[in-house]
Amino acid sequence: MIIRISVPLFLMVSTCIVFMFALIFADEANKHERNLQRSIAALEEKIQLQAKKQENEIFRVLETRAKTLSTQEMSMITAAVTRYSRINGHDPYLLLAIIETESGFRRQAVSHKGARGLMQVRPFVARAIAGELNMAPDMVVKHLDDLVVNVRVGSYYLAKMRKRFGNLTLALEAYNLGPTRLNKFIRDGKKLKNRYSRKVLNSRDRIEKIATNRV
Q: Cα(61)–Cα(120) distance, rounded to whole angstroms?
């Protein structure tokens, strides 16, 4: 009789204990989930604030250095530089420095060698890398004067040069000279003067001071 009563009682008590522990664990899991969600939200907010701060700094540089551009054009360049510097792993101030060095922030600039736009991209270069950007070669060349297209292509090309030559100085010299010509200089043992890279990096330092209000 006692056994018949104690076994169901034991099972009932055990079930209650298991249920209580399950509730406790569920509550702890919910707390952990809520804390995790709050941490993620805080991190996302911090990233958004940093991105907004960076955009404001880029726009400040353009207001100071690119006085021929309209407010809309400056906003477009700000968005493009922010986006493609992030995608291609560049310092955004470096992209601005290349734009300043290459075109003086003139969207319609054309060199005597046919390089076009803000980052002075040559049509044959744009055509060669268009497929890597999932863009039609003819359309890329046609729209090299477009602010966003030009920054997209130019920043990607710089990233390719950086990957190919392994450091920023050589990547910048390759951007200016072309990789084939730079390789020839290296093979021939010619000492590189690095004038272009120094000019860009000096411009980059000035731009950072403007961006961070240290001028």
A: 19
The pLDDT of 97-126, averaged and rounded, is 97
**Single pTM value for the model:** 0.81
Three-state secondary-structure class, residue 116 = strand
| Greatest extent of the chain over all pairs of C-alpha atoms, in Å | 107
Check which CATH number belongs to the domain holding 11 and give it: 1.10.530.10
Chain-centroid distance, C-alpha 157: 14
Residue (of 80, 58, 1, 37) closest to 211 by Cα position: 58
Tokens of 38: 């709050």
Q: pLDDT exceeding 90 applies to what percent of the chain? A: 71
For the chain, the domain total comes to 1
Range of the domain at 51: 2-211
Mean pLDDT taken over the chain: 89
Half-sphere exposure (CA, 13 Å, Cβ side) for 199?
A: 13
pLDDT band at 3 (very low <50, low <70, confident <90, very high): low
